[in-house]
Write a structure and sequence with these properties.
Layout lengths: L3 H8 L13 E2 L2 E2 H11 L3 H9 L6 H9 L6 H4 L5 H10 L3 H6 L3 H16 L3
Antiparallel strand pairs: 1-2
Helix pairs in contact: 3-8
Length: 124
């Protein structure tokens, strides 16, 4: 379990005690930018299958990280997502142990890919 200081810093990824330049930079990007890119990649069923096949989805630390990424469900963070419905649905499904096992199935991946495609072309 993370200590309270780490938990507090993870609680609000956009907050900072100083200016933008005081935020840590990783390879030229802020932690929030990296997390945003990663969470959006979860909307790709083939990537989820890749994570599962490499046993990332069985790693308790990785599962905790997926729980932490739930902050993207808050409106102030959802607005940064390019495809919020698909991304948040994947993040929701990844909270379930059964789904983390089922995504290994090519049939499940194909079904999710089809649903993703259909939702992207559905008239609004």
């Amino acid at each position: 379990m993370a200590d309270s200081a780490a938990t507090q810093s993870m609680a609000d990824p956009l907050s900072s005690t100083g200016t933008q330049s005081s935020r840590p930079i990783y390879g030229g990007f802020t932690r929030f930018e990296l997390e945003l890119e990663f969470v959006q990649s979860l909307a790709n069923p083939y990537y989820l299958n890749h994570l599962a096949s490499h046993k990332f989805l069985q790693d308790p630390t990785f599962v905790e990280y997926l729980k932490y990424l739930q902050y993207f469900t808050q409106a102030e963070y959802t607005r940064y997502l390019s495809y919020p419905a698909t991304t948040l649905k994947a993040l929701e499904l990844l909270q379930q142990d059964k789904f983390r096992q089922d995504i290994l199935s090519p049939d499940m991946v194909a079904r999710l890919a089809e649903e993703t495609l259909l939702s992207s072309i559905k008239p609004r």
